[in-house]
Every structure is written in structure tokens, then in C-alpha cells.
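Q: For a teaching session next week I want to show students how multiple molecules come together into a single three-dimensional assembly. I've collected the sequence lines for a complex. Could you give me the predicted C-alpha cells for the whole thing so I can convert them for display?
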Amino acid sequence: MANPVLVEVTRGTMVESRHRGTVVAVDGAGKVLFSAGAIDHLVFPRSACKAMQALPLVESGAADHYGFGDRELALACSSHNGEPEHADLADAMLARAGRSVEDLECGAHWSFQQETLIRQARAMDKPTALHNNCSGKHAGFVCTCAHAGEPVAGYVGYDHPLQREIRATMESLTGALITHDVCGVDGCSIPTYAVPLQGLAHGFAKMATGEGLAPERAKAARRLMAACMAEPFYVAGTRRLCTEIMALAPGRIFAKTGAEGVFCAALPQEGIAIALKCEDGTTRAAEAMVAATLARFLRHDDTLFAALMAKANHTMRNWNGIAVGDVRVTQALMD
Amino acid sequence: MANPVLVEVTRGTMVESRHRGTVVAVDGAGKVLFSAGAIDHLVFPRSACKAMQALPLVESGAADHYGFGDRELALACSSHNGEPEHADLADAMLARAGRSVEDLECGAHWSFQQETLIRQARAMDKPTALHNNCSGKHAGFVCTCAHAGEPVAGYVGYDHPLQREIRATMESLTGALITHDVCGVDGCSIPTYAVPLQGLAHGFAKMATGEGLAPERAKAARRLMAACMAEPFYVAGTRRLCTEIMALAPGRIFAKTGAEGVFCAALPQEGIAIALKCEDGTTRAAEAMVAATLARFLRHDDTLFAALMAKANHTMRNWNGIAVGDVRVTQALMD
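A: Of course. Below is the structure for the complete assembly, covering every listed component.
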């Protein structure tokens, strides 16, 4: 059974491209409230699970030890644009632990966001690891290791104590058994583990509600999600959907993208979390899917519903500003 | 019936993303030699049919009148990077007709190719219409109108004589009836017409073989394809698949990409043309599909077959150079 078409891209009066995918929304007990496609299939969460990967930073006491507030915790959960504010804050986090960019093992890349890339090209010869979209997560990793007295060098390795702890955290939250077989290497060189989409959603629902979590974990999860919702610019940046969606309703929506068309989101007040994967890995479609799926649980708030649906369904314009077509979600997401 | 998965993207030992699509290869008589998916469905050729759109430039005598050689004709069929050589040649083409960048109606955009964009950002405040990936096609349009004594202003309009002529040319080559219903507006503001994928392939097979074409059209088609194959840098540019594939075997392979995952290609010596569409519009998958489909008709040339399959199946590396997965075509394209 092929996954359903969830997003269409039109041109003129015709559908030009189609995106299939899987979406699941669950409550804190793991009950499925909505689904489309094969939600038991394994999906690499990629960067969409950074808030899970940041739990050791808070649970270990490192975040408090180094005096990290909402901005630092948001950056630890971020896939940012590499804007000056992002790079500077990652640098400052490392400095709190007496560390520097030299300790980052994520590699360097130019910003994925065009306006930022243009500014970077004019301001620097080449980007550093601080500009890597994962530098905040890695700065958090370095601080966690430094605080615990673990070796910092090699912190990205599968057998490093930090990655073992993250693996155990992921297993506990998602309910999935994580073995070498489901392990890949992420863009920033840390391990990434394929888990069932439904388990991924349940993990975020546990974080959003605290259901089924020990008090310390529930508190750390709430703190990380609240930090992201309070400082959405530090989770992504200028013209980025994660930032824009969270800014629509401060404190009410958590949303985090991952490479290859993954998105995780949560509505803490409603006690719901969402995980989705665009089959072909395309960001434009994953963005439409997450906006529409969040909207379906916010029908009671006309303004917020409309604002989210405007992110899901939007007109594309060409270089002369002429409307050429639309990105739109299909009925499969709205019924 | 869903279109088949033709390209997989792996991570570790698992498939992370999947691309579905339709592919058809035909001979000059239109006989289907290979197909996958629904090849009767309508597809917007987008920029993949630029060589068809350039026929009036040659057939009208404008190309000869302005002394255009292989480079100018290749640029008229191109979707280029906006590198200095591309922008300068588009400018020179316009100057031959006493025209300038002011006459271009394609709009302006930064290069889609990162290295070129970085150089552009350092060298200019903002790009002009000469840097638009379609500027060569539009320069050809302006020259065609100027030579014919038609108004240049408004040459992108559906009812402009040039677009009427292109529409008639597309109908004749593809065998499709083109009405307002199948018309969209392209990124560069000219009309684009959805035609059956099989008809699109047949149009390119006619151009590659001359079969079924009047002598003047056959000659013009051969000249345009030969120009692209002789000057592949001017069809795309640095690190671009069209350029790289045509450079593998000078004079033997024609290949042209289009937006939203379209590719057209031809093997003039074998008398075969190919048209394909990745269902989700992703370039990485369309590139793998075209390389593998060309390869299947070149099994008699071990070196060329291997070089094309290396374009179809390739390893992805992260920012630290670590191999994280592969882009690979499925058996559906190789059987």
C-alpha cells in the first residue's frame, strides 16, 4: 500500500507535483487521535528530536551549572540559520564551560537560508562549526560532557557515554528498541536512530504532558519545550517555519523540523503531539503537513486555525511576482 | 495505481526517503522502448523543452542573421547557473539585435548554485535578469522577435506571435492538443503547456532523428542539439548534471533538466529519446533517473555505462566527509 498523497503543488489549473507521507497525532497515553499512511514504519527523526537529545543537558544539572536560560536551551534544541545571534550564542555557551569552537565535531557549512548565506558570503571567507545549523545542540553536548567530567573529544561517537545516554532516553520516550541495525550517521556526525513514527509522536506527547515520565524528566522536558516556545528565533531563525509557527501563539505550539521531510510538534495545552514524514524527504511538503495537522486540533480557535492553514496552503509566485500555483494539503489531512 | 518507486535514498542500512516517478523512452517513430509509471499523464515540461522553444530562433533565420554559433544556441536552450560567462553571453546576444537587459522579461534571481551565489554575493548588490537561469532562452526570444519585426515588449504573453509559434511547434512535435486548460505560467513568466510524457519523449526523438519532420525543422533541431552537445557548459554550468552528462561523451548525449523533477534526454546515434518526471518534483531523483535510463541504452559501451551509473548511484557525505548513505535507482529502472 502506497502512502497517501498529502500535499499537492499546482500550476495553472493542474496538479504538477505530489507529495506522499505519513502523519500521526497521539495523546499522552499514546492513543492515536489521527493518522495517515503507515505510521508503524521506521523513520529517522533526524533533527526533529533535538529536544529529546537535549534532555541530558538539563537532567544532569549542566544547564543550571552554566546558567543557561531559555535562549541557550532553545539553541540546544535548534536547527538554526547560522545568523550572527545563533553563532554568537553557541560560542558563549561553549565559553561558559571553558570550551570553544575547536571542541565542536559537527563540521561547518554555509547557511541553508539564502539571505543569511548572502550576508555570510560578504562577511566571512568561510563558515565555522559555529555556523553549522546544529552548533547549539553540539554546544549543549560539549557542556554536558564537560560538566559530567566525561571526555569531550569523541562525543559524537556511538559508544561515547553521552550518546549511550541519549540512546537510552530515546528508547524510553519512544518505546522502541534501538540497535545498531537502525543506526545511521546524521549530517552533524552523531548517531541517528530510526524509530516507528507512532513511537516518536508518543515520545513528544510524553514530553508535552509529562504522562508516564519520572518527575525529574517531566520537569526537564517541560523546561526545554517552554524554552523553545519562549524563544522561537533561537530554534530556527529568519523566515523559518518552526520559528513562525511557534511565534503565532507563544507558549501554545512546539514545532521542530528535521532533514528529509520530518516534523515533530506538540500542543501542550491540548495534550497532543504530532510526528510526520514526507516520503520523498521534501521540506515544503513536511511544512504544509505539520501546519495543517496542528490546525485540525485548533479548530476551536478561529484566528490560530486560519493562520496555520495559511502556512499549509499558500500561493507560489515567480521572479516577476506572478502567481503561478499553490502548495496545498489534500483532503486526507483535513477530514 | 501509484507510480513506482524509482529512486531510494538510504541512511545506514535503511531506506530513508523514496521517490516515485514516470519514465518513457521512445524511438523516432514513437515506439515505446522502455517505460515505468503512467506515461500518458500530463506533465509540464518546464525548462526541459527549451530546445523546442528555441526552434523559431533558428528556423526564422534570426540565429544566422545575428551570427550565432554553438555557444549562443546552447545558451538559448539552457538553464544556466548565472556564472559570468553565461550572463556576458546573454548580454552579447541581445547587443547583436541592438537590445539589452532592459528588454528581458524573465525577472532576476540569485544563482541556484551555491558557489556561484557566493561569488555573486561578493561581486554585486543584486542579480539582474542576465543572471536569471533562463536569460539565454529569453535573449533568443528577444532576437527572434527583433529579427521578425514583431514587438519585443510583451514577448512572454500567451497571445504574442512568438508564443503562438512556440505553441504550434510544441503541438506538432509532441502530437498533443494544447489549450488554455493545460497552460501554466513558468518561473520566467512565459507560458508552459502540460503534455503527455510519452508525447514529450516522442518530440525529442523526432528532433534527435529527424523522423517525421520537414527538412528545415529537422535541420534546425539537429543544429540546436549539436550546439548543446558541443558546448555543455553553456547549457547549465559548473557542477551541473546536464553539463557533466553531456561532457561524458561529446556529441553522443543530449540532456536537459526542468523544474519540478522533469528531465528530457536523447541519444541521437541510437535514435532514442527519454522524458521523465519525478512525481514529487525533486531534482536529485530526476537526475538519478535520467542517468540510469540513458545507461540502459548504452550497455554496449562499458565505460560510458559505468560513468552514467556512477551519476545515478552515488554516496552522500556529511559536513565531516563521512559517508552517511546513498542515492540509488531501484530495480524498476534497471530491469
